[in-house]
Amino acid sequence: MPILFWHGGAMTGVTWETTPDDRPGWSQVFLRHGHDVVVSDAVERGRASWAPFPQIYDSPPLFRTAEDAWYLFRMGAAEDFARRRPFAGQRFPIARFDQLCAQFVPRWTTNAKATIAAYMQLVARFDRVIIVAHSQGGWFAQSLAARLPDRVAAVVLLEPAGAPNLAPEEMARAARVPHLYVWGDNCDSHPAWRPYKSDATAYSESLRSRGGTVDTLDLPKHGILGNSHMPMMDDNSDEIASMILGWLARTRD
């Protein structure tokens, strides 16, 4: 069964292809474990469609700075950006932080409908898929599970940026799809990530109340400390991939 890898905001499919310190990315890791993999770029990003503003898009793009990423990706305290002093025990290869930033592309926050439509067309190419999604991509993955539960076999959500607001009948459909939520370190104390995690947790509890299979891999609660918002790039990325592969195997048994 193919795995579709969906990236987060201001990112592209390169997220999954390699790490900033040149280790194999998860597309290779999952491929070597016998999965077909599909890496895509969302609408307006990277190798996907793009249109000029203001001629076609009705809002200007947003640009992520290195300072923004340092704070939002939980590399270290905001005031320590200039010195590049990370959190104690940080698992991201900080020496290659600027290499990560080189991957950033312009993004829009007004193209959700177009992105959902494009992802629906992608999923419809296959009989059944597994979606592994990161950050903003996790919001889309949760939405697609509710729209196409017969085609989505499972979703793995790496620190999703919140959750969609769905009608009860949509939630009932989504509950037919197993969900795994993965969280790194320093989320619960972070002003930006507390509400994202809270929204996703409430959504997961709603799925569970409807009989859905929902699991949470909160890494610090498992004694795995120091992970950033980029677990597929942290120095223990292979370990986390193995945990996800194990969950997928158990879910499909």
TrEMBL record:
<dbReference type="Pfam" id="PF00561">
    <property type="entry name" value="Abhydrolase_1"/>
</dbReference>
<feature type="domain" description="AB hydrolase-1">
    <location>
        <begin position="2"/>
        <end position="170"/>
    </location>
</feature>
<dbReference type="GO" id="GO:0016787">
    <property type="term" value="F:hydrolase activity"/>
</dbReference>
<protein>
    <submittedName>
        <fullName>Alpha/beta fold hydrolase</fullName>
    </submittedName>
</protein>
<dbReference type="InterPro" id="IPR029058">
    <property type="entry name" value="AB_hydrolase_fold"/>
</dbReference>
<dbReference type="InterPro" id="IPR050228">
    <property type="entry name" value="Carboxylesterase_BioH"/>
</dbReference>
<keyword id="KW-0378">Hydrolase</keyword>
<dbReference type="InterPro" id="IPR000073">
    <property type="entry name" value="AB_hydrolase_1"/>
</dbReference>
